[in-house]
Amino acid sequence: MHLIVTEKNIAARRIAAILAPKNPKKDRVSGVDVYRYEIVSDEEKQETVVVGLSGHIVGIDFPKEYNNWQKVEAKTLIDADIITTPINRKIVTALKGLGKKASRVTIATDYDREGELIGVEALNIIKQVNPDVSFDRVRYSAITPKAIEAAFSNATNVDFNLADAGHSRQVIDLVWGAALTRYISLAAGRLGKMFLSVGRVQSPTLSLIVDREKERNVFVPTPYWEIYAELQNTEGKTFSAQHSTRRFLDKKEATKVFKKLGKKAELKGIEKGKKTDQPPTPFNTTGFISAANSIGLSPANAMRIAEALYTNGYISYPRTDNTVYPETLDLKAQIEIFKEGPFKEYAEALLEKAELIPTRGKKETTDHPPIFPASLAKESDLKEDEWKVYELVVRRFFATFAGPSEWETMRLKLDINEEEFRSNGARLVEPGWRWYYPYNAPEDRLFPELHEGDSLKVIKKDMLDKETQPPGRYGQGRLINIMEELGLGTKATRHEIISKLYSRAYIHGNPVQPTNTSFAVMDTLETYSPTITKPDMTKLLEENMDRIAEGKIKESAVLEESREILKQVFSELDKNREKIVESLQAGLREDKIIGTCSSCGNELIIRRSKRGGRFIGCNNYPNCTFSLPLPRSGQIIVTDKVCEAHGLHHIRIINSGKRPWDLGCPQCNFIEWQKTQQEEQAKQPKKEKPKSIQDLEGVGKATAGKLEDAGITSVEALAEADPVELAKAIKTSVKRVKNWQISCNGTVTVESNSTAEGSSTVKGNCTVEDA
C-alpha cells in the first residue's frame, strides 16, 4: 500500500481527487478521514491511501515535574529535558495503523521549514511500527492538477536539515518563552490568566512599538502657518494655490504677508512635465500582507484567507520570500486561464502584448514562486473576504506584466502683490499597470484652461494655524515590513507574533498602540536585561536556523549556543532581581489607574472585591466609597483617551475570539445603563405594594421567621435593609433580597446582566459585590 501524507484533510481530499483514476473512496481510520483509490498497471493493483494531518500532531514540552511555577526556578528550564507529546492522538493512532500496512510513504506536506518538520514528525511515527518502510517527498506550490501531477512524477528526498531547522525554532522558542515568561510573571506577581508573556521575537517586536510611542510622548509640536488663495479664471473656474514659503514659523511674518495679499493674481509661469510610475513587483508574503492591510484586512486574517484559497487550489503557496517568477512557471498559460470569467478583458489585453516580461523584485529564492493565481474562480464560489483577497492576487499578478503608468504634470507659478504662490496638478494620461491594479491610486489634480500671463481673481484667502505632528504609530502592514528588515521572525510567523501581542493585551488598535503594561515590561527589560528587547540576538538565531537548513551547522550546536545566550540573560536578571520586582510592580500599578475621584480627589483604580469581582474604586477607601462597575470577564485596556466630562480614561475590553469592545468612559457608560434600566422599569406595570412580608413571592412561614430573627418584621423594614448583610443573615442570595426590595417599592436596582455586559450591580456609589 502506498501511503500519502498531507498537512491537512482538505489537501488530502483534493490531492486524492487529482491523482485517482476515478472518484476516490472516503473511509475512516481511527476516527480520521482517509481517501482510497487503486491504480492498475500490468494486471497488478496498487492501493493508495491519502491521509491529512492537522498541522503538528505532536508537540514539545517540559516533563511534568517542571510545571509548578512556584516551586521550580525559571532558569532551570534552560537545561531541562524536552519531551515529545502527542497533540492529536486520533491521527497518531491512524498513522500507526496505516503505516504498518504501507510499503511506501510519500510526504506531501507544505514545502517549508514547518511543513518539512510536520512531515518528518509523521514519518517518525510510521517508522515506529514499520522501521524499514521506503519513503520519498513531493514538493508543490499549488494544489492544481498540473502542479500535483508534476510533483508526484518528480518525487525527491525528505530534507531532514530543513526539518531540523524547524525543530530548532520550536525548542528555542519553548525554552526562551517559558523561562522568561515564568521569571517576569513571578517577579510581577502576575500568574494564572494574567501572566506576562516574554519571547525572543515577541519582546523585540513589542520594544519597537513602545519605542515609537515614547517618541510620540516626548515630541514637542512646533506651530507653523500656511497661506492659501482660492483663484478664479475669466470663465469662473477655480483652483487653489499655496504661498511658496510652505510653512511660516513666525506668525508675525505670516500675518504680514497675509494682509498684503490683494484681489488680483498673475500667472507668471507654467511648467509642464511627465512622471512615470513603474509597475509593482510580484507578491511575496510580506508584500501581500502589506497590500491586504491597506484594503482593510489584518495580517492574521489575510494569511488565514490566503491559506484557505491555497488549499482550495485558487492561489499558489502564500508563504514565500520570492519576488521573481521562476523560468519553470508558464506565465502565459497562467494568464490564459483568465480568458473566460470576470478578468477576461484584462487577460486578453496582456495576451495581445508582443512579449510578456514581468517585473522582478530584489529577493529570489528556489523554494516557492511569488504568490500568483493558480486557477479561475467565480465571485459566487467564494466568501466576500476570500474574493477580496483572490482579486487582489489576480490583479497584482496582471500588473507585474503591464507597462508603467504615465502622468502629465503641471506646476504653476503665480504672483499676488509680489508674493509668490505655487500650485501643482497632475493628470493620468497612460494608466498602464494601474488599470489592472487600481488600489490606492492617486487622483487627478486638474486645472482649468490657463495661459501664462493670465490675470486671475483672488476670491478667497486663508491663513491656517497648524503644528508639526509626532511620528505616526505603526500600522500592522508597516510593522510586518520592519520586522522583515530587522530579521524578526519569518514570513510564516510575523503575523502570528502580532496576533499574540493583541491577545495578551500588550497592544490595541490599528495603527498599533501599546498598553501601560507594555511600558512596564519593556522599561524593566530595557533597563536590566536589554538583550531580550534588541533584534540582534533574534537575528543571530534566525541566521543560525538558516545555516541548519543549508546543512552548514548541526542543530545541537545552535541549541547549545541559544542556551548559553539565555544563561547570560538570566545572569543579568538575577543581579537585579529586587529592582526588577520593584520596577514591574510600580509600572503595572500605573495600568490600573483610571483617573481622579470626583468625591475626594484621590486616584480611582481597578480593584477586586472579596468575591473576585472587578470594579473601579477609590484609593481612599474606606474613607471614600465612590465606585463604578466593570465587566466580569475580558482583559481591561486603559487607553490614553480621556472623558471630557469626568476626566476618566476610556476603557477597552478584550475577550478571546471576539471583537474588542470599546466601553468608553466607565462613568458615562454606567450613567447610560442606569437611564436604560429606569426606562425599562417605567414600562413595567406597577404592582400593588404588599401589606405584609408573607405577601411577597417566595416568602413562606419559614423564611418570614428567618427575617423576623434578623429584625425584619415589616415591608418597610425590608425595603430599607442592607441587601448584602440581610442575605448573609438569612443565608440566601443578594439577588433574591433585592428583588423582594423592588417588590416593596425599595430603591435598590435589580441585578441584571445588561450592566456593562455583566458588570457588578451598583447601589448608590458602592458596588454590591464590595459593599
TrEMBL record:
* Domain Toprim positions: 1-141
Q: Where is this region: Interaction with DNA?
A: 197-202
EC number(s) for this protein?
5.6.2.1
Q: Which UniProt keywords apply?
A: DNA-binding, Isomerase, Magnesium, Metal-binding, Repeat, Topoisomerase, Zinc, Zinc-finger
The record's GO CC annotations read: chromosome
Q: Name one Pfam family in it.
A: HHH_5
Biased composition (Polar residues) is annotated at 751-764
Site location (Interaction with DNA): H56, R169, D173, R319, R504
Reading the lineage from the top rank, the first entry is Archaea
What does it catalyze? ATP-independent breakage of single-stranded DNA, followed by passage and rejoining
Cofactor (UniProt): Mg(2+)
- In residue numbers, the region (Disordered) covers 751-771
Q: Which residues form the active site?
A: Y317
The entry lists its GO molecular-function terms as:
DNA binding; DNA topoisomerase type I (single strand cut, ATP-independent) activity; nucleotide binding; zinc ion binding
Which positions fall inside the Topo IA-type catalytic domain? 159-570
A Gene Ontology biological process annotation?
A: DNA repair
User: What SUPFAM superfamilies does UniProt report for this protein, alphabetically?
Assistant: Prokaryotic type I DNA topoisomerase, Rad51 N-terminal domain-like
Query: PANTHER family per the record?
Result: DNA TOPOISOMERASE 1, PROKARYOTIC DNA TOPOISOMERASE
Q: How does it assemble?
A: Monomer.
The record's similarity note reads: Belongs to the type IA topoisomerase family.
Tell me, in a sentence or two, what this protein's role is: Releases the supercoiling and torsional tension of DNA, which is introduced during the DNA replication and transcription, by transiently cleaving and rejoining one strand of the DNA duplex. Introduces a single-strand break via transesterification at a target site in duplex DNA. The scissile phosphodiester is attacked by the catalytic tyrosine of the enzyme, resulting in the formation of a DNA-(5'-phosphotyrosyl)-enzyme intermediate and the expulsion of a 3'-OH DNA strand. The free DNA strand then undergoes passage around the unbroken strand, thus removing DNA supercoils.
Could you identify this protein by its name?
Answer: DNA topoisomerase 1
State the species of origin: Methanosarcina barkeri 227
